[in-house]
Amino acid sequence: xxxxxxxxxxxxxxxxxxxxxxxxxxxxxxxxxxxxxxxxxxxxxxxxxxxxxxxxxxxxxxxxxxxxxxxxxxxxxxxxxxxxxxxxxxxxxxxxxxxxxxxxxxxxxxxxxxxxxxxxxxxxxxxxxxxxxxxxxxxxxxxxxxxxxxxxxxxxxxxxxxxxxxxxxxxxxxxxxxxxxxxxxxxxxxxxxxxxxxxxxxxxxxxxxxxxxxxxxxxxxxxxxxxxxxxxxxxxxxxxxxxxxxxxxxxxxxxxxxxxxxxxxxxxxxxxxxxxxxxxxxxxxxxxxxxxxxxxxxxxxxxxxxxxxxxxxxxxxxxxxxxxxxxxxxxxxxxxxxxxxxxxxxxxxxxxxxxxxxxxxxxxxxxxxxxxxxxxxxxxxxxxxxxxxxxxxxxxxxxxxxxxxxxxxxxxxxxxxxxxxxxxxxxxxxxxxxxxxxxxxxxxxxxxxxxxxx
Length: 454
Prior knowledge:
The protein is of the alpha/beta class.
């Protein structure tokens, strides 16, 4: 770890998930009665201009172009798609507004040592970590993800969220009856962290782990520190068919072809890279080399405010790299391809019968459904279901689908000028706070907490 001073911040930032976690405590859900959503539908075989997605008992039970006659139909006039998957983040730190880096850095170790960063991010985080109840920051960040259409995130630490069911799926933790993912923020330096890394490699070899997230070579191409880190990664045998390289912005074309040949996947966060280093990963080359590429919004100090915003940065950057991407392929980077990278493509990333009903409905402003998703921002989100649970929706839709349910965790919000309703009760347990309570706890300790609806 290259931080200057040890403390709660460094511990939380560097904490990966290298050991198998126990299953979280789950709650009994009061799922909505069976219903169908009507609108444009993005299916595994293409986009339909008009289709019906039926949900019952938490699953998708029917996907068809004909109207069902046995369930209530909600006319959305929107675009229905799988819940978005954000494959790189640090949710505990997404309570801050964007940080303005005062200069460009050669690698991530440089900005982690910088005084401006310590003053604007590290020190306030040390305050929050010691003055607000555990999980408060993660819950706030999960709401931020949810209202942007995200139903699964990577990067929440096991210490902050593993003991209870999350508001959005923590896809590198317990998922669908098993914990088969692992993550590390830093590659081992010398013997520090080496036993944990070797333990993960052993589980990969045994077939127990199908997704290993690792920050690697995050910096500018030509940076000597990043180049040495990449060589150490290869020497340690870290390049496997389940390794998800996060960032890799310093990797050359040859480097990318090397890891592509070894079966690695890439998780790309261009906004954060561009703001900190002035350049980003050669993602177009990675795609051309056959690497599956998924997106992550990283964290608010340097990343995008939402995964939808990150998609726009990725699209522009791929065009600049001479590798323009089709709208359908960009959508896949946050749905079907992301699910494959996460090792969860049997469950997530597609609207298909038998899958968990993780669904998003967006306002429709473009005739092409894929293009509509690429143009969307969080204000277009009309409804989010996770496992058939209506967690966030237009207030009128929420009332209709939930039979006007009430609870201390259900509250009305004005989101970008639109009346919406949120249920934080998906988190589980008897002591789940509402968003208002979480916001009050955070701003009481640190008034400059970044807003969600901005």
